[in-house]
Structure formats: C-alpha cells, structure tokens
Amino acid sequence: MKSKFTIKAAFIIIALFSIGSMQLKAQTWNQMDTLFADGIDAYDFSADGTNGTLGINWGYRYTNNSGSTWSPLKDATPYYAMFTSFTFFGNNSTVYAGTDRGFYDKSIDGGVNWISGPTLFAYTCKITGIEFSGNNGIVVTDEGEVAYTTDGDLTWTTLPARPHGSLSAIRYLEMLSPTVAYMGGLDWFMKTNDGGQTWTNFSNVIPAGNIKSISFSSVTNACAVVAPTSGPNQLWKTTDGGTSWTEITTLPIAANDICCATSNVFFATSNMTIYKSTDAGSTWTSDYTLASGFALRGVKISGNSAYSICSLFGGDKVLKNANAFASISENRLPESIKIFPMPATNQITIETDQLTKTNSISIFNIQGQELVKQEITNNSTTIDISDLSSGIYFVKYQNENGFTTQKMVKQ
User: In sequence order, which residues have a C-beta less than 8 Å from that of residue 24 and are 6 or more positions away?
Assistant: First the structure.
C-alpha cells in the first residue's frame, strides 16, 4: 500500500506535468493611473513587471513598483541626449537606453542611475533598437547603421557599411537567439545568422508594399502588417523564418500594428481596438476597446504581461494586461532540454535548443512549491542550487511556445 506522502507526491507530479493544459482566468487590460501630459516616446518594462522606464521628450521617468508611482521627470545622461528606445535584459533591473546622439546608456538599478556607453555611431544618429541574447547584442540606428557585440557590452564592432545599403531607417530589431536576429524598415527586412556580423535581404518574399510592423516570436514564426500600394493594410505570417508568407484574411478590421507573442498567440491593433488570436490567426476576438481617446500604439510583450500606449485627450497612459496568456492552453515542448550533472550537488547546467525571446527556468520541490525561478538568455545556463536540500525536484523550462518539465535529483 502506498503511503500518503507517495500518493500526494504523485498528484503533485501530475499537476506539474499537466499544468500547460489547464485553463486559467480571463485576461484583463487596465490603464495605469498616471497620465503623462507630454506623451510617451519610448518605453519598456522588466519581465517581472516591477521596473519600467518611459522616454518623455528630452527626459525620462522610471518606476520600481509596477507603475503604482513614477519618478519625477529626469534628464538623460548626459543632459543633452534624448532617450529614444529602452530594452530590459537579463535580470529585472538591467536596462539599456538608446539615445539620439549615437551612443547608449545603461542602468543596473531599473533606471534610477545611468552610465553612458561607448559612442558607436555619428553624433546625429538616433539609436532605434538595442537587443541582446546571451553575450551577443546588436544596436541599430535611424540611418541604417549596425553594431554588434559578442562579449556582453564590453566591446562593440560597428559594421563598415550599412547592410541595407542606404540611409533607410531601421525601425525594428528583434534578436531571437545569440546568432539569429531580424531588422527592417518601411519596405524591407533582413536576417542575420551570425549575431549581426552579416545580413541577408528578405524583402522580396513579402508582397509589394510598405512593412508597417513585423514581429517575431521565435526564429521561425512571425507576423507582419503590410501597406499595399492601394487598399487597406494586409496581415501576413510566416512559419519558416521569413522564407515564405501566408496572408491572414480573418481579421475583421485593418490592423496598424501586430505582435506575434507565440507561435499561436497574436495581438493586432487598430486605432481603437486590440484584437487577439489564440489559433495562429484563424479566428480573432476583441480583447480591448479604447472607450475614449484617439489611438492605441501597438502591443509589447514582457514576461507574462502585455503593454500598450493609449493616447488620450490630455496625454498618454500605459495600458497593461498582467495575464496576457491567461485562458490559453500551453503547448508541451519536445523533451529537448538537458540537465546535468545528475545527480546534482551545488549547481546544474541546463542546455536547450528551444530558446526564444522570453525563457525561464523554475525549480519545484515535491510539495509543488516554486523554489527557484530564473530568466535565461543562453542556450546553456548554469544555476546555483547549493541552498537546496538533498532530494527530488522538478525543473520546468518555459518559453512563448510552451513548456517541458524534467526530474532533478539533488545530493
């Protein structure tokens, strides 16, 4: 006869392995309380939602309490620069800010204090995107220039020639692994397979028209809003990294912006409404409608939350959905993570080939308590488990496309 402990443990194991198929509570969008009369030019939030930064005219504001309160308007560092983009990376307190003077600033305390980085481009260049994956990073500008790093941010190499061959502004940048990234402008996009050192033009694979918005959830899956020479905007998707595209014709209204959150979950934005699909664009539902005001400005995913900016009469507000993936059935990923050594002592190394934009590792004990949670950005990650007692644990790896769980033995 099995003991009560064994039976209880069995139920917990079942729960941990089947959590992806559970239906959770419905999602809710809420406007944060603060109205920013001068408008919001750029923003980002940490994966846990605690820290956030906003670019407002020539200054910035930050929060360390999930937007309950915001700092007074502060000058960028140095004062003559303007923050043009923000990217939280790694831990929840490290954030990079691009400037309009060819360099970036870095904060390791959630935006409270800043240190100026190296000058990568000409004084007149505006940095429009900064992305990292592991120790590799890429910076792009509104004049088509690119720089990359392979050692964190210790040293950078600025490409001698513009990859697109013109001064066309790079409007978006997404780095999906240490080697694979996409960037693009109004009518073009390019791909790198070596961390930004060389780029291949993919522009001819999307029908003619201006690319208004493009969003990747992994190295293979993406959506794009295309403005043709005549008629309303069109929505397209790819499942092979941009080699071929299929038009999505089911959205009830022309979209201005698209966010490919996972391989199945898309957020499309019109002027007043956020639409959501949980089946890769086959069907759509209205997720949020702006009751007053005049514009919604896209959707950005950070951790499990989704954000947007709503332009109201009198200023801008941040719109947040803290449970953006609630009521969505997660997919079970292939058994594609390796955990070693096994049994473990003071640390474990986790290797995976399923790395996407947002990745996390959680360690549960036999009672189902989450003891460790860590965001990961490399295909290989080492985690300190010296504080854990000897016994059996379960390691759950999760990204935008699903999860997988494996048993771990600690000596």
Answer: 323, 326, 327, 328
DSSP string computed for 264-306: S-EEEE-SSEEEEESSTTSS-EEEEE-SSSSEE---EEETTEE
Q: Are 47 and 358 in contact (CB under 8 A)?
A: yes
In a shared domain, residues 44 and 190:
yes
Residue tagged 């499309």 (tokens): 268
Quote the domain boundaries for residue 166.
25-321
Whether residues 401 and 285 share a domain: the answer is no
Report whether 233 contacts 255 (CB < 8 A): yes
Residue 328 φ/ψ, nearest 5 degrees: -105, 125
Close Cβ partners of 173 (under 8 Å, ≥ 6 residues apart): 128, 129, 130, 131, 138, 140, 181, 182, 183
Question: Vertex 192, ends 99 and 374: CA angle to 5°?
Answer: 70
Give the position of tokens 């295309």. Answer: 226
Q: For the chain, state the CA radius of gyration.
A: 22
Task: Retrieve residue 355's tokens.
Answer: 């790395």
Mean pLDDT by 10 residues, the chain (411 residues): 43 44 54 93 90 94 94 86 91 92 95 94 94 92 96 95 91 88 87 96 76 85 88 91 90 91 89 92 93 86 87 93 66 64 86 75 77 82 88 78 75 76
Q: Are 228 and 209 in contact (CB under 8 A)?
A: yes
Calculated CA dihedral for residues 365, 369, 375, 377, nearest 10 degrees: 30
Question: Using DSSP, how many helices (H) and how many strands (E) does the chain show?
Answer: 1, 36
Length of the chain: 411
The CA distance from 401 to 405, in Å, is 14
Q: Give residue for tokens 């999860």.
A: 403
Q: Which helix (H) or strand (E) holds 16?
A: helix 4-18
Same domain, 394 and 284: no
Give me the CATH number covering residue 177: 2.130.10.10
- Give yes or no for a contact between 53 and 97, defined as CB atoms under 8 angstroms apart: yes
Beta carbons within 8 Å of 330's beta carbon, 6+ residues apart? 19, 20, 21, 398, 402, 403
**398 and 271 in a common domain:** no
- Burial (CB < 10 A; 0-12, 13-18, 19+), residue 366, is middle
